[in-house]
Amino acid sequence: MKRIACYAAVTAVSLFPCLPTFAQDYSGRTLVVGTWGGDIERLLREHVAGPLEAKTGAKVEFLLGGSGDRLSKMVAERNNPTMDVTFQNIYEAPSALKEGLVIAPDAALVPAAADVWAGMNDGCYAMSLVGLGIAYSKAVFPEAPEWSDLWNPELKGKMAYAPYPSSEGDGMLAVAARIAGADETNPDAAFAKLAELGAPMLTYNSLDEVLTLMDAGEIAAAPMISGYVISNLENYEGIGFVFPKDPGPVLVRDMVCQVANSPEPELAQMFIDLALGVETQTAYANELNFGPTNSKVVLSDEQAAKVINTPEEVKSLLQLDWTYVIAQRSDWTDRWNKEILGQ
Question: What is the mean pLDDT of residues 10-28?
Answer without folding.
Answer: 54
